[in-house]
Amino acid sequence: MSRPPEVTTLGSPGAPGVLLLHPWWGVTPAVHWWADQLVSAGRRVVVPDLFGGALPTTEADAEEHAQAALGDPATRESVQRCADGLAAEGRPWAAMGFSLGAFLACSLSGRGAADPDQLVLFYGGRPPSGSDVRTRRVDLHVAPGDPWFPDDERSAVEGGFRDAGAEVVVHRYPGCGHWFAEAGSPGHVPAATDLARDRVLDLLRDRPADR
C-alpha cells in the first residue's frame, strides 16, 4: 500500500466516537449503513478504508485483500492513529468491527489509557495482546457453528477479555452464518441484522447521563 488509508468521519464533531472497522469485503454499502445507524444514535463514526476503495466480490479476492492489508504496516498504523485520536479526546469511545475488522479492533485493547471503553465484535476477534487492558465491556455477536469463527476461537476471545477484567456479553444468532449482519453479503439475514442493530444502538446510544 503506497499511501495511508483514507479515513471518513461522520456525525457531530462533539459526539462520542466509534471506530468502525470493515470486513474483508471493504467499505461496502452495509458498512455505510451501519455508520449511519451509529450516527442516528448520537455517535461520531470514524471509518478507515483499509483496502483503498477496493470492494472484493469473491471470497478468494476478499481473502487476498485481507492478507495484504494485515501484512502492510500502513494498515495497523492507520487503525492505531484513528484510535489514538479518539483516545486523546479524553472521553470513553468504542471500537466496532466485522470479521477482519473485529480482529483489528481487539488489537486496540491492552494499551492502558488508550484502550477503547467498549468493543463491539461481529463474528471475529482475538484475545487482548497487551497487559494493561482497560476495555470495560466486550459484546460478541456470533453465529453458532460458524466455521469462519469457530467455538475455540470465540472461547479464546471471551476468556482472554474476562481474564483481563472486562465484562463479556455474547449474543448468539441461531440459524445464521458468517456475515449475517451485512446486507449484500453471502450470509445476510435481515431479521438478525435488525436485532443486532437494536442491541448495538441500545448499548452505544449517546444519552445525556453518559456525558
From TrEMBL:
<dbReference type="InterPro" id="IPR051049">
    <property type="entry name" value="Dienelactone_hydrolase-like"/>
</dbReference>
<protein>
    <submittedName>
        <fullName>Dienelactone hydrolase family protein</fullName>
    </submittedName>
</protein>
<feature type="domain" description="Dienelactone hydrolase">
    <location>
        <begin position="14"/>
        <end position="205"/>
    </location>
</feature>
<dbReference type="InterPro" id="IPR029058">
    <property type="entry name" value="AB_hydrolase_fold"/>
</dbReference>
<dbReference type="InterPro" id="IPR002925">
    <property type="entry name" value="Dienelactn_hydro"/>
</dbReference>
<dbReference type="GO" id="GO:0016787">
    <property type="term" value="F:hydrolase activity"/>
</dbReference>
<keyword id="KW-0378">Hydrolase</keyword>
<dbReference type="Pfam" id="PF01738">
    <property type="entry name" value="DLH"/>
</dbReference>
